[in-house]
Amino acid sequence: MTTIEAPTRPAADSIGHDRLRRLMARGTAFLGSEVAIMAGAMSWVSERHLVSAMSNAGGFGVIACGAMTPELLDAEIAATKALTARPFGVNLITMHPMLPELIDVAGRHGVGHVVLAGGLPPAGAIDRIKATGAKVICFPPTLAFAKKLIRSGVDALVIEGMEAGGHIGPVSTSVLAQEMLPEIATQLPVFVAGGIGRGEAMAGYLEMGAAGVQLGTRFVCATECIAHPNFKKAFIRASARDAIASVQIDPRLPVIPVRALKNAGGELFTAKQREVARSLDEGQIAMAEAQLQIEHYWAGALRRAVIEGDVEHGSVMAGQSVGMVTREEPLADILNTLVDEGAHALERRAG
Ligand SMILES: Cc1cc2nc3c(=O)[nH]c(=O)nc-3n(C[C@H](O)[C@H](O)[C@H](O)COP(=O)(O)O)c2cc1C
């Protein structure tokens, strides 16, 4: 009888690990970490504990600033620094009204990497970050944007597909990677995000020219993560098809889709959109304010699920890789599993 052997854990000095180290070299040099795996910032989730655990385990943690005030960000960075001596980054949302002040806070702490999320950076933001000595990382939604950002002086890019949890674009990770990596990966480090649940996929993107990867969903059930037990349980129970994109109900109110586990909160979002669209129609608010209200809605709904544990009415943002999250485990174990899976895949491919 033929038996199929489960992959054994390759030794850290195996051919596969060696190949993985070489493929990640540009990413690890850029991040200052041992492995070129970033834990993408997740609002309410990516605070001092998860971020320091990620960086201490050899990866790269990123604080989610979200809607924090400069004072709160200041405290969060200080607390993270007390928990790790390793590099970590800060994720700032471009539409935050106090973006310049937040950049200055990160600069005063000597944060080495600032990730700008949520749209094209406003004029001056990239230069302001670079003046603090930090490296700038952005998310290009298209190849044209990527080229524009490179011309503006960004130091690295994250290309994120629609399989990801949270706010998403319309194109899948596999297509973005094929379109963008051959064109830009020689110019600067490019990290691939969205739908990565196992190391084999990570190895594939590295072989295509990525400098590293960014995962979010896979790290939510880390023991160190402060998310409410109900939030983690919802992840452990869910399968890929439960992580669905929100639907826009009014063509005049363009909302960026959000991928989250389906629950009663979906209907609350529909009601919120109707309410905001009505205010827009009646001229009570302008488009920018309407969009800001939608973003505040998401921040509140996510907090309700992550912190309060109301996974029925809150927003359980999760990517399609959620089906590969099967238990709560220490962050270092998750990271080691990804590395071993990647190394094993590369060893097999080497023949
Ligand atoms: C619960 C949750 C919250 C998120 N919040 C943010 C955020 O505040 N800023 C951001 O840039 N990305 C955010 N993301 C995206 C992650 O940083 C990361 O890019 C994404 O999760 C990667 O795809 P994956 O979920 O398929 O691993 C969030 C993702 C999740 C699951």
Low-confidence stretches: 1-9
Helix content: 40-55%
Question: What's the helix count?
Answer: 12
Alpha-carbon Rg, integer: 20 Å
Q: Report the strand count.
A: 11
> For the record, what CATH class of the largest domain applies?
Alpha Beta
End-to-end Cα distance: 24 Å
CATH architecture field of the largest domain: Alpha-Beta Barrel
Approximate shape: globular
Biggest beta sheet attributes? 8 strands, parallel, barrel
Strand order of the largest sheet: 1-2-3-4-5-6-8-9
What's the domain count?
A: 2
Question: What small molecules are bound in this structure?
Answer: flavin mononucleotide
Order of helices and strands: HEHEHEHEHEHEEHEHEHEEHHH
CATH homology superfamily name of the largest domain: Aldolase class I
* CATH fold assignment of the largest domain: TIM Barrel
Q: Helices and strands: which structural class? A: alpha/beta
Structural overview:
- The protein is of the alpha/beta class and 351 residues long.
- The protein folds into two domains: 15-225 and 326-350, TIM Barrel (Alpha-Beta Barrel), CATH 3.20.20; 229-320, no CATH class.
- Helices cover 44% and strands 13% of the residues.
- The protein is built from twelve helices and eleven strands.
- The protein has helices spanning 15-31, 48-56, 70-83, 99-108, 125-131, 143-151, 173-184, 199-207, 229-237, 265-281, 287-306, 331-350; strands at residues 37-39, 60-64, 89-93, 113-117, 135-138, 156-160, 166-167, 190-193, 212-215, 243-245, 258-261.
- The strands form two sheets. Strands 1-2-3-4-5-6-8-9 form an eight-stranded parallel β-barrel, surrounded by seven helices.
- β2, α3 (70-83) and β3 form a beta-alpha-beta unit.
- α3 packs parallel to α4 (99-108) and α8 (199-207) packs across α12.
- Bound molecules: flavin mononucleotide.
- Residues 40-43, 45, 64, 66, 91, 117, 160, 163-166, 193-196, 214-218, 317-319, 321 line the site of flavin mononucleotide.
